Amino acid sequence: MVVIDGKDLVLGRVASKVAKTLLNGEDVALVNAEKLVISGSPKATTEKYLTRRRLKDKANPEHSPHWPRRPDLLVRRIIRGMLPFKKARGREAFKKLRVYAGVPKELEAAEKLSFVEMNKGKLNVEFTDVQKLCERLGLEQG
Question: Which pTM was predicted?
C-alpha cells in the first residue's frame, strides 16, 4: 500500500498522481486530505464548488451529481473524476482508494510519501486549503 501525506501539496497534482497509481493496480491511502491546497482565488474556488453543489436534475433530484462538504469525501470525489469511473477498470481502481482527514492510528507508523515538486511553495498565485473551502461550503448551505 502506498501512503501519501497531503500536507501542503497541490490537490490537482496529487489527485492525478493518485489516479495513475490506482490504475496501475496499487492500493493508495491519502492522509491529511484537509491540508491539501487548491490554487486560484479562494472566492472563485468557493463559487465554483457552490455552483456544482447547486446542480439538480429537475425530473429526479436523486439522480443529480453529489458533491460532499466533508474534506476527505470532497478529495475522494475529485480523484474519482480523474478515473474512468463508468468503466469496470475505473470502478475497481476507485475501490482501492482510502482518503483520511488527519492520520489514522493504523497508518501512523507507515512510511509516508510527500512530493516536493507538488508543494504549495512553488505556487505564485493565491490558494486555499480544502478544510477552509469545505467550511465556506457549509456556511453557504447552512
Answer: 0.92
Q: Which helix or strand (DSSP H or E) is residue 128 part of?
A: strand 127-129
**Amino acid, single-letter form, for residue 110:** A
Query: What is the CATH superfamily name and number for domain 2-141?
Result: Ribosomal protein L13 (3.90.1180.10)
Q: What is the pLDDT of residue 141?
A: 58
C-alpha torsion sign, points 72, 75, 77, 82: negative
- What is the per-residue DSSP string for 8-63? TBBHHHHHHHHHHHHHTT--EEEE-GGG-EEES-HHHHHHHHHHHHH---SS-GGG
Along the chain (142 residues), what's the average pLDDT of each consecutive run of 10 residues? Answer: 95 96 97 96 95 93 92 97 96 98 94 89 92 90 52
> Residue 5 forms beta bridges with which residues?
31
Residue ranges of domains in the chain: 2-141
Residues 91 and 4: their CA atoms lie apart, in Å, by 21
The confidence score (pLDDT) of residue 5 equals 96
Element (H, E) at 5: strand 2-5
SS3 state at 7: coil
